Amino acid sequence: MNVVSAITGLPYVGKTTLFNLLTGAHASTGAFAGAEAETNVGVAKVPDQRVEELAALYKPKKITHAEIMYRDIGLARAEKPGQAISPQKLGDLRTADAIVHVVRAFSAPSVPHVDGSVDPVRDLSTVELELLFADHAVVERRLERIEPELRSSKGPEREMKEREKAVLRRAIAALAEERPLRDLDLDPDEEKAIRGFRFLTRMPVLVAVNLDEDDVAEPERVIAPVREAAKAHRASAVVPVSAKLEAEIAELPPDEAASFRRDLGLAEPALDRLIRATYELLGLCSFFTVGEDEVRAWTVPYGAPAQQAAGAIHTDLERGFIRAEVIGWQELLKAGSEANAKKLGVMRTEGKTYPVKDGEILHVLFNV
Ligand SMILES: Nc1nc2c(ncn2[C@@H]2O[C@H](COP(=O)(O)OP(=O)(O)OP(=O)(O)O)[C@@H](O)[C@H]2O)c(=O)[nH]1
Ligand SMILES: [Mg+2]
Q1: What's the gap in Å between 34 CA and the centre of ligand 2?
Q2: What pLDDT is recorded for position 172?
Q3: Domain count, the chain
Q4: Which residue's CA lies nearest to atom 5 of ligand 1?
Q5: Which atom of ligand 1 is nearest to 243's Cα?
Q6: DSSP secondary structure string, 102-136?
Q7: I need a surface site. Which of 56, 85, 314, 341 has the fewest CB within 10 A?
Q8: Ligand 1 atom nearest to 245, measured from its CA
């Protein structure tokens, strides 16, 4: 699957700086034009040491990492909630799988703050309220339209619409109390009834707290209140970044960058931190395909059935799936080759429903 993350947040909080850092793009920052500018789109390679180690074994012609697509979606400063997101940006947000909400915690007097002061917790709720408004408008419109549809439908169709209406009533009640739709407990049928709306407040959110350079070594003091605020709702995680500083470090040669990070007490690059958090939040994992031609990582939901995982490679592999040969990446490295792994009996044969786990290598046998 191709995961899409939407980077958003108030103006001038460092969205584009972070976007550039993640994707290696050079979109203009500090122009203070995010709301009017087109959405920036770019791709980040998912860092994965396992891919490198497998590549060292196979020496393939091609090495392909998994990817996450990022969209940098600028919002406007709004006098009242419900005015900050243009219709086009709304579409860019709705079709994402997760939101990366950047909040500003850096002071930089040269960079104006739209609300006059640096307050990440306040900003978090300002933007959350925008998203709530957007969802509220959708629910309200749908509830108006569903009534006449209900009157003219019957049987299973009516039942489905009744269910949709019931969920939407709960949704509007939650939104009216300023509770995001992530907080609603829905069974699979209810979930299905509203999935098509792609509600913004039901998407998993990663809050990226954009720190001052001085706070990088000890981010807890700054991020604790944000974590506390985010914890009130489900499917959210908080990750510290220092977009500008880390972008500067990323420009350095790799060993210099590593020693600079060590000096600063930064254990790993922001990219690694954010992407790992995204995988956790979305319940994703990586499996690999290996060979002389290509060593490649693929992204699937954790525990996806082998047949569905095969579909990530190609639809033919899903359609004509017979079975898969499976081995953990470490076992393969230890065995030194697939032939040896087979001899040792550590290569398993699994069927369609086998739940694929992180770090497994799949060989799909298929017939179309
Ligand atoms: N000191 C400091 N400045 C930062 C940091 N991140 C971004 N900035 C600066 O803040 C300004 C705005 O950054 P952008 O990345 O353009 O912010 P944005 O959120 O994309 O802004 P809009 O797209 O206009 O809404 C730029 O001058 C950046 O250099 C940071 O971590 N620390
Ligand atoms: Mg921008």
Answers
A1: 4
A2: 97
A3: 3
A4: 244
A5: 31
A6: EEEE---TTS--TTSS--HHHHHHHHHHHHHHHHH
A7: 56
A8: 31
Give the Å distance between the CA of 29 and the centre of ligand 1. Answer: 6
Q: What is the pLDDT of residues 70-127, one digit of tens each?
A: 999 999 888 888 888 988 999 999 999 999 999 999 999 899 888 889 999 999 999 9
Residue whose Cα lies nearest atom 14 of ligand 1: it is 14
Structural domain harbouring 172: 131-200
Helices (H) and strands (E) in the chain, counts: 14, 12
Query: Which pLDDT value is given to residue 83?
Result: 83
Residues 183 and 207 in one domain: no
**Run of H or E including 348:** strand 348-350
185 lies in the same domain as 208: no
Of 281, 316, 347, which one is at a domain's C-terminal end?
Answer: 281
Helix (H) or strand (E) holding 19: helix 15-23
How would residue 33 be classed by pLDDT, with cut points 50, 70 and 90? confident
Give domain status of residue 35, yes or no. yes
Distance of CA 15 from the midpoint of ligand 1 (Å): 7
Burial label for 159, CB within 10 Å (0-12, 13-18, 19+), is exposed
In a domain, 152, yes or no: yes
pLDDT tens figures, 128-156 = 999 999 999 999 999 999 999 999 998 99
The strand pairing partners of 8, in sequence order, are 101
Ligand 1 atom 27 nearest Cα: 30
Domain limit, last residue, from 250, 281, 312: 281
Q: How far is the CA of 17 from the centre of ligand 1 (A)?
A: 6
pLDDT tens-digit series, residues 181-202: 999 999 999 999 999 999 999 9
Asked if residue 210 belongs to a domain, the reply is yes
Tokens of 233: 């709702």
Instruction: Kindly state whether residue 126 falls inside one of the protein's structural domains.
Output: no
Q: Which residues line ligand 1 (CB under 6 A)?
A: 11-17, 29-30, 32-34, 74, 106, 108, 111, 210, 242-244
